[in-house]
Protein 1
Amino acid sequence: MRLDLEPELDSFRAKVRAFIAEHAPGRKPHTGTRAPADEQLPAIRAWTAALYQAGYLGIDWPAEFGGRPDAHPMEATIVAEEIARAGTWPPLSGGQLAAAALIHFGTKEQQAHYLPRISSGTDIWCQLFSEPGAGSDLAGLRARARREGDSFVLDGQKVWTTNARAADRGFLLARTDPQVPRHRGITAFALDMTSPGITIRPLREITGTADFNEVFFDGVVIPATDVIGQVNDGWSVAMGSLAHERSSIAAYSAALFPALTDLVRLATEPGPDGACAMDDPVVRHRVGRLAARILVNDYLNKMSQTAVTADPADAPARKVFFSELNLALAELGVALQGVDGILTEDDPAVRGGGWWQDALLYSRAFTISGGSNEIMRNVIAERGLGLPR
Ligand SMILES: Cc1cc2nc3c(=O)[nH]c(=O)nc-3n(C[C@H](O)[C@H](O)[C@H](O)COP(=O)(O)OP(=O)(O)OC[C@H]3O[C@@H](n4cnc5c(N)ncnc54)[C@H](O)[C@@H]3O)c2cc1C
């Protein structure tokens, strides 16, 4: 592992930091993968366009669409880290997921149509994979797309669809052949979210925000030209793009450092009696342990980025380590507030606008999204360690 980054990467990081300070659309009010309010969308579209235009996003895209094949492999990570560290909005993730699928599996026409629309912030994408009976067991999905001439007709339901209400396009998986083994009868589509027959219902979460949605399809017509990859080969398209999603979870790790700084501030603020939580050796021990785990988490990410060969257990192991650490940090952030820990963000007496309370309520989401931690542990055991199923 290399911890000393090359000097040119330091100057790249400084440039990115200055760019974010000048152009970012302000602080994101909550931690995690959250849906922006409608009035924030124009600023997020413009911010996405600015990042692509500056060459800070789409670094691994083909050069004709703005990619930079000669860029250092760490540059994309540095951009993601600096966005998280600044606490501002990342580009909405569906577009990058769809772009990965289109670049590896899409036709030249699809790439020429969709990639510039993603990089200009014109199209926001959502990910239409999970269903009520198909999350961990994604291959069990039942939304059905029947071929009718030059089109497919879609019926069924998706759930947990982040940003569905804001999305112009959906990266959809649907069953196109129910007769063959499950993995072989699925097709990927670029679905126009304004098509007749789509109903979107927001789902309110424990945080009080509605970041994801149910999406219903009733006879939705999809032109056959919007199939991504081959008909009935959607499983390969999905797996290729999900590898991107799991690696992006590591980008959130950078946000642990400012959170730790605030945790230490919280633990050293004097209470009404003049004493502070950090005077307690048990609190000092817990804060120290978390600080050590945050450093280990950072080293795990650096180790993975500088590794010569890819280990199949690497991304799942980092996802489990990060999400459980993030949860423990939020638990302590709320516990340190004592009885005030139960105040909600609309209470004028709540500390920091209720940031820690929201972070705690949201932190379970990271142990589920992008593949639950139980499933990640199965992957580590079976593919990483070669244990039996
Ligand atoms: C914040 C958030 C955002 C999301 N955004 C999207 C999105 O935009 N688009 C989208 O398509 N999906 C999205 N999802 C859905 C996500 O992919 C699923 O929630 C996830 O794959 C788990 O599926 P499930 O919820 O159906 O749970 P289930 O698969 O029903 O699992 C329930 C429980 O059983 C456990 N379990 C299941 N199978 C096994 C097994 N074989 N061994 C051990 N334990 C098992 C799981 O770990 C879990 O604890 C999002 C989820 C979250 C939390």
Protein 2
Amino acid sequence: MKLGLGLNRHRLTPENFRFAAQAGCTHVVVHCVDYARAPAPGVPERLRGYAMAGNPAEIWSVAELSAIRRQAEAEGLMVAAVENLDPAHWSDVLLDGPRRAPQIAKLKALVRNLGTAGIPCLGYYFSLAGTAGRLEGPFARGGGISLKMDQTATNPVPAGVVWNMTYDPAAGPGFQYATSAEALWDRLRCFLDEILPVAEEAGVTLAAHPDDPPVPELQSTPRLVYRPEAYQRLIDLSPSPRHCVEFCVGTTAEMAEGDVYETTDRLSRAGRIGYVHFRNVRGKAPHYCETFIDDGDVDMARVLGILKRNGFNGVLIPDHAPLMSCDAPWHAGMAFALGYMRALLQKV
Ligand SMILES: [Mn+2]
């Protein structure tokens, strides 16, 4: 197994690649979505709390992806995956909207671009509400800044927003058009039916993240993979070897039902893990708190042992880690998680 670090778009700098290498990483998972793009001046009040999605006309190019790869390689690292799609590029795939067909064509081109740039995996998260409904605060050990969920009620998603970002500031007023879980499963199946053949040709694995937070409904939208059994339903959508899971240990442990070790065993035995989000948590949805990697409910060494026994040979990244009190809160949190993971990997 290999150690990696996830880097958001604004962290794709030579210093951060070097930081990953110094912590013992051989791989990085990169984000191309700008999650912090400010709303345009003049967007309606009801959309002010949401970041703006990217440019719908521009998918990530071979040149852009290759430049990231070269930057990583300059520090001795491989790019294991690009994580997450921009809502601007697939809003109508998620919502079954009128621009679905051109967006699918662009997603196919994007998967080909990843293959050409030598990036072997695309992590995606098929969700209407995205990662809403969590709070950030001093909830981890010693007041480390982490995320918690402690609620069951959330406001519906405004029209023009999907996956927690505004893709159409001119939409609305009102709310995202309601749909059922079955309709959403259908949309996911259609997406996979169209994209997986291209992914196979391009040599790119598609890896699906489970619902974070894992609750059956969020912001009046249905969720798909919020309990362990749903991983199987997801996998059964296609026999393609390029159809995998972005296995999130934390999210799986947060699921109200099931057992994180059993799920780890089932998915890794089936060979359907693209890469792993290796983080810890205390509690179960809808009342849980993200913790330091050594401080939650999950025996991380046991999870690693199961992955090893089943021959998983891919990349593990820390996912989120609590921010630590110092001049570099994010880096300290990641260094702590990576050091712990490195030790477990050496020992397993
Ligand atoms: Mn995750």
